[in-house]
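Course assignment 3, question 2. Fill in each field.
Student: A.L.
Task: Predict the tertiary structure for the chain below.
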Amino acid sequence: MTMTLAASPHAAEALALVRALQRRMVDAMQAIGGPTFEDTAWLRDGGRHGGGDRWSTGGSAVFDRASVNVSQVHYDDDPDKQLSSATALSTIIHPAHPRAPSVHIHVSWTELRHAASYWRVMADLNPSIEDPAATRTFVARLQAAAPGVFAEAAAQGDRYFWIPALGRHRGVAHFYLEDYHTDRLADDAALARAVGGAAIDTYAELVRGALAAHGAPTADERARQLAYHTAYLFQVLTLDRGTTSGLLVHDQNDVGILGSLPSHIDRGLLASWAAKVTPPVDGLVRALVDAIPAAAGDAPSPVDAATKQALAGVVRGFYRAHPEAIAMQAQGNVIPPTVKNHR
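Answer field:
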């Protein structure tokens, strides 16, 4: 069965926008090197309610994990649903070299039937080992792309990506606009396109620069990267509302939704953080640890497709049993309506 697209012309325009950003990111990453990105499609309800595709690679000398996802889900055949359609780009890149930063970029259009439709625009730089000059460059480029909203987006991002249990942010630069809309639809789309494009182009420049400037990683650099990748997984699976919402709504793209997870983590370090979170989330952390295979000796534990599937089941089961715990997750200024509706 083929994927059906949303009937709304605004959703069609949003899909064209995010597909162009997807191509821009894949081309930029492919130009850096490594194996060719491969395309994997998925269908929502057999394609009746849309679907998407992700371009991904990993396990190479250049990329630990790289996933560039586009999706469009719609309910044109169900007028009782508040959500008419949701169209999104979500891309997560984890380079193999510890000195090259990771990045997360999200651009989405949510169209509602009985409330204002809105954009969600995120771009955050996530290095294992910070390069202050790279941070300044990333911030300056996003500020230039969206000067009128940058201060608010940075403030929201700093709130959203804070990890209370660890007393740190997930990254070093956070741009986050939630529920963004004005009465000028074309201008709103232009802002989403500008921020996404600036983040993609700047990130590619930073990765190329890091790889050119640094030789083979040291053991200490590898250890710092592993600890950071563990913190990244911890934040995504215990605090990220977007991830939780996606997993609660359906189970037809679990591996894609968890495409942000790095390839290996420190299972013992993750287990130690159960004591740092507020109950009942400590139970979630312990269940996540149990779902990740133990490696021999001190070797990192792999997070492969089967493990992602298991982790998705753990998160889904936990929040269905403890819906009140969603209130303990991260948020910007507002909670997206689509998240509230799927508690």
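Instructor remarks: Residues 338-343 have pLDDT under 50 and may be disordered. The two ends are 30 Å apart (CA to CA).
Grade: pending
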